[in-house]
Amino acid sequence: MLEISDLVTAYGKIEALKGVSLQIAGGRITCLLGPNGAGKTTLMMTIAGILQPRRGSIRLDGAELVGLSPARIVAQGVALVPENRLVFPQMSVRENLLAGAYQRGDKAGISADNERMYQRFPRLAERREQLAGTLSGGEQQMLAVARALMSRPRLLLMDEPSLGLAPLVVAEVFRIVADLDRDGTTIFLVEQNAHMALQVARHFYLMEQGRVTFDGTPGELAEDEVIQRAYLGTRRATT
Amino acid sequence: MTDFVQNTLDGLMIGSSYGLLALGFTLIFGVMRRLNLSYGPSIMVGAYLGTFVYVQFGASPIAVAALAVAGAVLAGIYVERLCFAPMGPGAGIASMVSSFAIWMQLEQAAILVLPRHTYPYPPLAAVAPLMLGPFMVRLDHLIMLVAALALSAGMHLLLYRTRFGLALRAIIGNPVAAHLVGVNVRTAMLGAFALASGIGGIAGYLVLAADQQVTSMFGMWATIKGLIAMMIGGLGSIPGAVLGGLLLGIIEMHGQWYFGSQVRDLIAYFLLFACLVLRPGGLLGDAPVRETAAYGRRA
Amino acid sequence: MDDYLIGVLSNIGIVSFIALSAYVLLLTGEISFGQQAFFAIGAYASGIATALWHWPLAAGLAWGAAAAAAAAALVGVPTLRLHGLYFAIATLAFAEMMRLLFELFHYQVLIDGELVGPNGAEGFRNIRYIFDNNIDATEFLVLVYVLLSATLLGFSLLERSRLGVIFRMAGEDEVLAELSGVAVGRYKVLAAGIAGALAGIGGGLYAHLTTYVEPRIFDVMLGVHSLAYGLIGGLGTALGPLAGVLIDIGVLESTRWFAGYRMIVFGGLVAVLLIVRPRGLLDEVVVRNIGKAWRRTSPLRRHEKQGQP
Questions:
Q1: What CATH number did the domain enclosing A73 receive?
Q2: Which of B79, B285, C56, C96 has the fewest CB atoms within 10 Å of its CB?
Q3: Do A50 and B176 touch (CB under 8 A)?
């Protein structure tokens, strides 16, 4: 569904993405792992149109996304749940969700989706008039996901949803991710928490210092010794 | 006692125009996170356009008002396109200084076209002042107050009941997230600018019609008053802008009554300085945050 | 040299002081719209010293600079916690307060049957030191540029010194600087004092050149101009603000037919320039590149290259 070819994004002279190529297939979860500073968030921001790449292409079902404004990219059906959630702090939960549906005109459909979000995220339903800035980290994460879903995206990007959350909350977040997967949503997930990611993702990429250094299945990932040591914290006994 | 109430009443009236000026200012700041020092001058362009048609063609007050607002909006768009739109996110300083440069440009352009120190403006309500008991209230000042309240209410409705308002609040809340939910941020910012300039144009018209003249110092005056009222009320806060304006008006009136007009201005600036040093967030705004790389984004 | 040219050059020299004053603060990362306040304090203080207390010019100028520096440091303290926009507006407010205070300031002394001294909004006339002591226009010009050269020397020493590094550190990221152990507050007050002194010298020279100052001169326009010079000319070097002054006064002033449209042109120029080069013409990158190119062509290196087989 999403085809990224040879993407180069730079901040001034520093290239954060040094020619990244990867494919996101529809209907399943693809996960991008990597250490801090690898360029994962830069990649997400480039896909979303917030950053402009120097070179390369990003095609969504054949349509080129590079050069489009972020608003146009949302119109194409891409929604990003950003790192650090970035909820609208002075708006209520309800208004945040409404903002997520900004480009939609079908009031009935928006209302229905709103209700669906409250069902999927009961904690948000309880707090629907509360200001988003006063929510806990986990609740803000739910809100950010729900807000992105309000635009009925074809492709959902998630940038480190487990960041800064307590283990119980992280489990809840991934439960939601698994639910979305079951519903058929295409998800491109960036994570540092490889353990949780292994439970939901069907394909893995690893990015280090602006380059893709691994492209394979969860099984292959688990077999790879280097990755084992660096990211999974386990060491397989050499046979 | 009568004096006190009278001064307070007068202060409320003039303060309502300050509030409107601050409203436009704070809208631009809230949305763009930058200060537009060309705000007053763009209103002045509109004002001069208004006086021009009044003097040359004897236009009616409505026409003058319409042109004053239109002129302000056009000038505002010019400023936005030149000083704010082309700048990247980190160039707040450059935008502010650029807007000052255009302030100078607009002022000189206006003075070149209409070189005299003062020009007449059609009066708003050429009737005798109303008497509420022992207190005197001018009808045109009253109109100003009503207009200010109406515009503030309108602003509130716009922000909370329209799609455009939602877009603005999204940008004010978190500009990146606004992009991510599909708001066309650049268009919305232009719209905010035009709206703010329009409000400023109305404020300017009301003040000048009450004064029945416009002087070449008007641009500076509008910017300074709007700035002080905005900072007292709290940067980025709409109710704060109105409150700050009213408060400034009242304090100025009392200051002028007891100490004369030079001290009045001195008090206004002192108020601003003290407010910044003691409580930079103003009455209703948020305390400023420090941008730093050390903690990722904010300290 | 004809009188007009001397006049323009003196003007350029004097305005350079207030441009450099704003520049010092820009180095530490703060925008000030208010350096005209210290320009005014320098003007009034040195004028009072020479015209009312009969001090020699050097002492008067020093006194003006000291008074301005002290005032600046004093204001620097309560505004320490302010940054960016808030600091800028605070400086604006302070400068306007000073201007209004000068409009209320009366201090007159009877000298030779005449009342001399600051007279509120009427201003301060008869600062006649250079005329009473037969210092002609050329000599005064030399004085201005000697002081300016000394200042530039000071800046070049500053850029190479630890203090200069600290200033730029504070300008880049104050929190990081503090975390590195720098007592940023103290250095900001120091920077404020230096900036005040520079503006004060400029003010003193201005007062004696024109023999008459009034509060109206020291308005926001002057303050923002001084800021704009650094932003146009570049923040990479002390020569940047001077370049800005040169562009404004030198080019636009002397092309007569611009006269009525000067602000329109200058204003537009500034706006366009800031789009293309937000850190000015001679920004840090350009200065570093010039430095590299300079070193590459230095006689020493050429000699080395010749020595190679």
A1: 3.40.50.300
A2: C56
A3: yes
